[in-house]
């Protein structure tokens, strides 16, 4: 299934406590029984990967419509951080049921965002 996430703010940069708004679209002819949009931050680098779901929007009647608008309110922390050992990354992700036998769900689309009071990632490996 093809799906896309388009943010209202085209540079994908948002201040803490701000709003992430946009449209998620998909092909209704190939839509699964359910879809869920999530606002997520995760860590990358050395150590155990941590994933935190900050917000969820269940999408119903996905076989009827082909797009939905969404809005999430960001928390005050954590900021996007690009370090040598650890990075904190934010994204809006679309999930649906997996076609794999032992996996309940799979990511169908993702849209990275930068969360920072300066609208620039912090750290020593900046974009």
Q: Explain this structure to me?
A:
It is a single chain. The chain has one domain: Immunoglobulin-like (Sandwich), CATH 2.60.40.640. About 0% of the residues lie in helices and about 55% in strands. It has no helices and nine strands. It has strands at about 5, 15, 20-25, 35-45, 50-60, 65-75, 80, 85-95, 105-115. The strands form two sheets. Strands 2, 4, 5, 7, 8 and 9 form a six-stranded mixed sheet that branches. Strands 1-3-6 form a three-stranded antiparallel sheet, with no helix packed on it. The model has no long low-confidence stretch (mean pLDDT about 90).
Q: What is the topology?
A:
Elements: E1 3-7, E2 13-14, E3 19-26, E4 35-45, E5 51-59, E6 67-73, E7 81-82, E8 86-97, E9 105-115
Parallel strand pairs: 2-9
Antiparallel strand pairs: 1-3, 3-6, 4-5, 4-8, 7-8, 8-9
């Amino acid at each position: 299934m093809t799906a896309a996430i388009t943010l209202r703010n085209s540079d994908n940069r948002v201040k803490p406590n701000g709003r992430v708004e946009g449209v998620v679209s998909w092909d209704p002819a190939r839509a699964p029984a359910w879809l869920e949009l999530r606002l997520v931050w995760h860590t990358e680098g050395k150590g155990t990967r941590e994933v935190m779901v900050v917000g969820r929007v269940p999408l119903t009647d996905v076989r009827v419509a082909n797009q939905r608008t969404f809005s999430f309110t960001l928390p005050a922390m954590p900021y996007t951080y690009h370090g040598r050992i650890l990075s904190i990354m934010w994204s809006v992700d679309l999930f649906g049921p997996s076609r794999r036998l032992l996996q309940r769900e799979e990511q169908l689309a993702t849209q990275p965002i930068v969360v920072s009071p300066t609208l620039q990632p912090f750290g020593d490996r900046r974009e």
